Amino acid sequence: MQLNDLAKHSKINVGVKQSTKAIKADRALTVFIAEDADKILVQKVIDLAQEKLVEIVYVNSMKELGRACNIDVGAATAVIEK
């Protein structure tokens, strides 16, 4: 899955807390992680996604991920729901 696929989906969750909830509830199809996000913050999401076998896509920056989610601020993580 690509970053431009993110904007096409109506069911997305933005942010570490919302992404974590979606992954734990087995609703996550793909998780997007900004490479410039705080590693300590996103490592829990990465570990959980790997445990649940959710596809992980890395994005260059939080600003780029936020723009793809149609928000005016950067985003560390985002999830496309099933």
TrEMBL record:
Residues 4-79 form the Ribosomal protein eL8/eL30/eS12/Gadd45 domain. InterPro entries: Ribosomal_eL30-like_sf (IPR029064), Ribosomal_eL8/eL30/eS12/Gad45 (IPR004038). Pfam families: Ribosomal_L7Ae. This is Ribosomal L7Ae/L30e/S12e/Gadd45 family protein.
